[in-house]
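User: Fold both of these, please.

Assistant: Here is the first one.
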Amino acid sequence: MSGITGLNRKHNFVLLVRDAEVVGEALRQALAEAPPEERPGLERAMELVESTAAATEAGLRARWVRSRWSAVGFTGDVTSVAAVRALRKAEPKLSLLAAVQLQKEAVDHPE
């Protein structure tokens, strides 16, 4: 996710769009029809899709928060007030409450 569409001070939620099932089905179909030389790559891709599909929503939001911190160059303590400021710098429309909640998820779900 590169940003949050429709985010404003009244709507402080992060909507996750997950299409791992669709991608997984396409990979299963490709794997069923693949020649032997393509199978190892498709099998690896399938493993990646399955591991991503198993991620929790909180884990995905935490990953998004870390990507936003990275985008603004934040490398400090993720439990700090500076981390909340950096998140709001990356996403100016994010309310303080939403930023704190997202920060907590990032702390609770380290990489």
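And the second sequence with its predicted structure:
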Amino acid sequence: MKKEGTAMAFGADDGWRNKRTQPTLPEVYRSLQIPKKGSWFKKFLAFAGPGYMVAVGYMDPGNWATDIAGGSMFGYTLLSVILLSNLMAILLQALAGKLGIVTGRDLAQACRDHYSKPVAMGLWVLCELAIAACDLAEVIGSAIALQLLFGIPLIYGVIITALDVLIVLLLQNKGFRYIETLVIILIVTIGGCFATEIFLSKPDVGGILKGFVPSKEIVINPTMLYIAIGILGATVMPHNLYLHSSVVQTRQIEQTSSGKRQAIKYATWDSTIALFFALFINAAILIISAATFHKAGMTQVAEIGEAYDLLTPLLGTTIGSILFGVALLASGQNSTLTGTLAGQIVMEGFLNFRLAPWLRRLITRMIAIIPAVIVTAISGESGTTQLLILSQVILSLQLSFAVIPLIQFTNDKRKMGEFANPLWLKVLAWIVATVIVGLNAYLLFQTFFG
């Protein structure tokens, strides 16, 4: 019998061109045990964690600007768009988790095996650009938060964020559960801040409920449609699909049909519950913006710094602005943890090439920090806002190139065996992919030519 870590340990390779020779994230691969006995709740807790790491990408600083603009301009109307994008994310993340559990490959490894070398290399370059864009949003978001809370100039805040990489390295050396725990603590912090903000802003409950019902005005009004597509584009993160297909493999599951089926069930629960936290936070940003700025007739508030400055006079207390800043800082730090891991997964998966984790994360962070420092030095705060918008456009461009391979692989019976998507799920997944491709194409066209 071969030792774990060889090709035999990764299950059947039917439908794949090459045998697996290296697991994803080898330093933490199958490092967390799952109890064989005990209640379903105990088993679920053992599986809980990866979903929250994924949920972080759905509440990163890049989402904030679109949510603030949507709330200030159109009140609660675009809440239905946040709900729709979240439901699409739940479906796609469930497929990503299933791919990793069933095949023992993350999405990057699957792409490298399935596609020709030039295609795989093209996908890798696009994915690296998306990760750099996402990291850019996190860097700028954290720097803005440091400026708002402590008066630290933006350019110094950007440089300080380079130290985040040390936190990731320290925690991963202690064990993967430490990273998951910190992520959950930061999500709870963000959620607590926004729950308090909602209480202070006294939103219209009837308006909120009505906002979750889709309105034809969203399609008819060009400006509303543009912001709605921006919310969709900023919500579903391509690198999260790579991340999720990898981190679900940190659990020591039984490599049997029943073991994989159980793992898929609990992993899907985990990511679905976690993404509802992300739904609450994104909806909360829009609700607070609608209840304060839109209600006061301030329909052009779109920048994070502007929103921070206006919250205190509108809410009548400084605690509103402080909580907003704390939530932004926690959001940026949280996204850093998962973004650097995604960078490692993508490079190792597409290239079958390993760098020392500290070096890989330092490279990822430098790719984001260098343009942020240059733009901040030249253009100041207005330049960083434009850079934040550009990062979301880049993410939109990459999204289709992650979604289509994921659906293609999970539909393939040769690759997935009995776990291949049933017909209803195939149809639903391709509808979601078509919507994403169409809306992002429209967003890109409007950004460059509209």
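Residues 1-12 have pLDDT under 50 and may be disordered.
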